[in-house]
Amino acid sequence: MATFQPPRGTNDLLPPASERFDALRVLATDLFERAGFRRIITPMFEDTALFHRGIGESSEVVRKETYTFLDRSDNSLTLRPEGTAPVMRAIVSNHLWDEGTPIKLHYEGAMFRYERPQKGRVRQHHQLGVEAVGVEDAILDADIVALGWSLLQAADVGGVTLLVNSMGCATCRAAYLPVFVAAMQGRVAQLSKDSQRRLVENPLRIWDSKDAGDIAALEGVPTLADALCEACAAHFTQVRDALTAWEIPFTLRPGLVRGFDYYTRTTFEYASETLDAAQNALGGGGRYDGLVESIGGPALPGIGFGLGIERILLAQEAAETARPARALDVVAIPVRAEDVSHAMRIVRAARAAGLRSDLSYGERAMKAHMRHANRLGARFAAICGEQETSTGAVTVRDLSSGEQTECSIEDAITRMRAHPEER
Ligand code: HAM
């Protein structure tokens, strides 16, 4: 019979990678909540029109990468390719501004993009994200940029370059666009087919290209960051000054335009110094001052970021900071079939006391039980034979030193809990 594999571009996340995934979520939730963000959980699919309006018809994601389908009532739905538009939709659906601003929300979850799968680029990826809505202050931009930076530091991902840019507002873009288009029209022959199309549909996207010819063609072309209006330039200066004051190193990247239409003013990306250039973005984000209004809400500004969990795990591996696999604390070994129930009592008591504990199943020789306990990485074996079962005691064996003592269950647990170093 044909066997099934995970669909192309998706992965089963097995232990210990799944445990590192969870550890990252815990780390992020703690950090985000300490910064005043509260958790939001939105559906995994939304009306298709939300993404077309929110992230833009001409974005690569909407043009080529959405998983869109009709449900049984012929509604067009799309698996969310990103988290910002859904969170803004939830803010609008639930009038969250009624309770005051800023509205600070964090989220975690699967995102779906029909991309060409390769290392670090999958069709179902997971993001950790934050969004702060209702405040235009540049200090919020810097706070958000710094928050993502702190998380990556705490997650030990190795070297990261923080790239920042400003995409200005509609006014600066309207003034800049003809200048940029004229410059690129003079170099159109150098551009890739994709960028020739972008020049007509959405010229700024050319800045996003990874094509060597496009990169060469952009050399010396005036940037949007040089053409900001007074208000946007002042805002951008404040963001950079705050990052400098807090000693967060950053690199100005005038070409950082990012892939969605909603971005305005500050944009940023965290680039891993250890992953391949095409997949080195550990996360990114920016301001989206017109997004809430464009999907039918009030004119509320916003800013946030999304971090790619799979990429962070890859960077941890590359930096060799991945935490060792979690092992069991104790394996209980029944010597005879009659000792199983007593051994299981010990397992249950140890679990209740917070120790990772399991039973060594099956009737087998003591040597085989010990090999099993070692393979599980257990620190202790709790041996239950005829004597232990009859007195209600247990023999605890330290599997690294070989030392063993017979004692009560309570004493055994106290002893095993006193060795927390690998937990
Ligand atoms: P994004 O840059 O498209 O931004 O995605 C954020 C991060 O998700 C990327 O930097 C990358 O680490 C990860 N990622 C994206 N696509 C894939 C993929 N196919 N495979 C693996 N990882 C991937 C957003 O989605 C915005 N919503 C971020 C944001 C929040 N902007 C403002 N607020």
Characterization of this structure:
The chain is α+β, with helices and mostly antiparallel strands. It has 2 domains: 243 residues, 2-Layer Sandwich (BirA Bifunctional Protein, domain 2), CATH 3.30.930; 93 residues, Anticodon-binding domain (Rossmann fold, 3-Layer(aba) Sandwich). The chain is 38% helix and 21% strand. It contains 15 helices and 16 strands. An 8-stranded mixed sheet has the order 1-5-6-11-10-9-7-8, with helices on both faces. The model has no long low-confidence stretch (mean pLDDT 94). Bound molecules: histidyl-adenosine monophosphate. The site of histidyl-adenosine monophosphate has 25 residues, from strand 6, strand 10, strand 11 and helix 11. The site of histidyl-adenosine monophosphate (HAM) has 25 residues, from strand 6, strand 10, strand 11 and helix 11.
Reported CATH architecture of the largest domain: 2-Layer Sandwich
Bound molecules: histidyl-adenosine monophosphate
Sheet-strand content, in percent, reads 15-25%
Count of individual domains: 2
Question: How much helical structure, as a percent, in the residues?
Answer: 25-40%
Stretches where pLDDT is under 50 for at least 5 consecutive residues are none
* Overall pLDDT level: 94
Judging from the principal axes of the Cα atoms, what is the shape?
elongated
Q: Assign the CATH superfamily of the largest domain.
A: Bira Bifunctional Protein, Domain 2
Radius of gyration: 27 Å
- The secondary-structure class comes to alpha+beta
Largest sheet strand order: 1-5-6-11-10-9-7-8
| CATH-derived topology of the largest domain | BirA Bifunctional Protein, domain 2
- Sketch the major β-sheet: 8 strands, mixed
* C-alpha end-to-end distance: 43 Å
Number of helices: 15
CATH C-level class of the largest domain = Alpha Beta
How many beta-strand segments?
16
